[in-house]
Amino acid sequence: MDTDPGIDDAAALTMALNDPQIDLKLITSVAGNVTVDKTTKNAQKIVRFFNEKVPVAAGAKQPLIKEFEDAARIHGESGMPGYDFPEDLPKPLDVSAVEALHDAIMSSDEKITLVPTGSYTNIALLFSEYPEVKDHIERIVAMGGSLGKGNMTSAAEFNVFTDPDAARIMYNSGIPITMVGLDITMKALLTPDSLSKLEHMNETGKMLHDIISQDGDNSDKGIAMHDVNTIFYLLHPEAITTKKMWIDIVTDGPAIGETVGDIRGAYHDGKTNANVCVDIDAEAFNKWFLEEVSQIQK
Ligand code: BDR
Ligand code: CA
């Protein structure tokens, strides 16, 4: 997982670290919701919370070309406020995210799945420096983008807006990509009822409740758990409707960061580079979220 915790990233990491069907090999951090020093530390806090051994490698401090803008107004100054995590954190790896990704991918017996839940800077750098890794990646399941409106600008979703040049490289990589965008993440809100059930479930539920309650983007209907939808998709693809199409990324101008879906297949002659999530069973998402947490032994 390549991530920028981030409240919803932390929840996604929680599911990935604990679900027995997922073999999480490596966590890499990227600047996004907050600076990379903070996102690295936040990823380590989650690993430490569960006493897990999954390595964390620090990644890109800034986008490839565009200037870095964080989302601390939503995720707080630390990126993961509201809960007192242990301070004795494991050390990050000595190598950079790109080196760590290369080593993990090339040393794996099986093809791996990349799950980016921040901007795609590390992924773009990895593909530029080590194009050979592409043959060892089964697929990419990435949070980001939208066929409708954005959440950063009218056109752009935050992860793609943060580093559109990286997004363009990733979408042109030739690797099968599932776009887990706002079209579903704004539908599968964690309801106020689900949030309150988390609080007294177990220590993990309390931790998630406490950090999710700090999310600056909540409404009466609930809170979007954007990044968690990637894990839900991996485990329950039957609860999500997808549509194959070509996705282009706008890299300048007023629509910078927009993911343009060739819905009619007109521009790219019906060729596709992505499987775009277009609908989700929001009730099943809430049910699964609570079940996952209730099964965690902490
Ligand atoms: C994405 O932006 C970030 O703030 C969230 O962590 C998520 O990855 C949603 O647009
Ligand atoms: Ca994120």
UniProtKB/TrEMBL annotation:
<protein>
    <submittedName>
        <fullName>Cytidine uridine-specific hydrolase</fullName>
    </submittedName>
</protein>
<dbReference type="InterPro" id="IPR036452">
    <property type="entry name" value="Ribo_hydro-like"/>
</dbReference>
<keyword id="KW-0378">Hydrolase</keyword>
<feature type="domain" description="Inosine/uridine-preferring nucleoside hydrolase">
    <location>
        <begin position="1"/>
        <end position="286"/>
    </location>
</feature>
<dbReference type="GO" id="GO:0006152">
    <property type="term" value="P:purine nucleoside catabolic process"/>
</dbReference>
<dbReference type="Pfam" id="PF01156">
    <property type="entry name" value="IU_nuc_hydro"/>
</dbReference>
<dbReference type="InterPro" id="IPR023186">
    <property type="entry name" value="IUNH"/>
</dbReference>
<dbReference type="GO" id="GO:0005829">
    <property type="term" value="C:cytosol"/>
</dbReference>
<dbReference type="GO" id="GO:0008477">
    <property type="term" value="F:purine nucleosidase activity"/>
</dbReference>
<keyword id="KW-0326">Glycosidase</keyword>
<dbReference type="InterPro" id="IPR001910">
    <property type="entry name" value="Inosine/uridine_hydrolase_dom"/>
</dbReference>
